[in-house]
Design goal:
Layout: H1 4-14, H2 16-23, H3 25-28, E1 31-39, E2 43-46, E3 51-54, E4 57-63, E5 69-79, E6 84-92
C-alpha cells in the first residue's frame, strides 16, 4: 500500500514556497522566503476538546522588514481510496 501521507508531506516540504505562491499569493508578499525553516514535529492540545494532536509539518518563516516570525503547524489528513486531502493549520506569531 502506498504511504500517501508521507509522500504528500515530502511534496509539501520540498515545494513549500511554491505551495504558498499558488494557494496564498497575497501572503507571500509579506514573507522572507530565505528565512524558511522546518522545525521538529509539535504536539499540541485542543483545550476545549481535551484532545492532543501531532503536527505533521511545522514551518517557521520571517515576515519582511522585521524580526517577527510566523510558525505554522499543519495537520494533514489524506484518506485512501478517495484521495481526499484536508489540512488544518495554526499560525503562531
Amino acid at each position: 500500500m502506498i504511504d500517501h501521507d508521507r509522500l504528500f508531506k515530502e511534496l509539501i516540504s520540498t515545494f513549500f514556497l511554491e505551495f504558498l505562491e499558488l494557494f496564498f499569493p497575497q501572503v507571500m508578499a509579506y514573507l522572507e522566503p530565505e528565512s524558511l525553516k522546518f522545525l521538529d514535529k509539535e504536539v499540541f492540545t485542543d483545550v476545549t476538546a481535551g484532545e492532543q494532536y501531532e503536527a505533521d509539518l511545522v514551518v517557521q518563516i520571517r515576515f519582511r522588514g522585521g524580526n517577527t516570525f510566523a510558525v505554522v503547524a499543519f495537520v494533514l489528513n489524506i484518506s485512501d481510496p478517495g484521495f481526499v486531502i484536508s489540512y488544518s493549520s495554526t499560525a503562531i506569531c
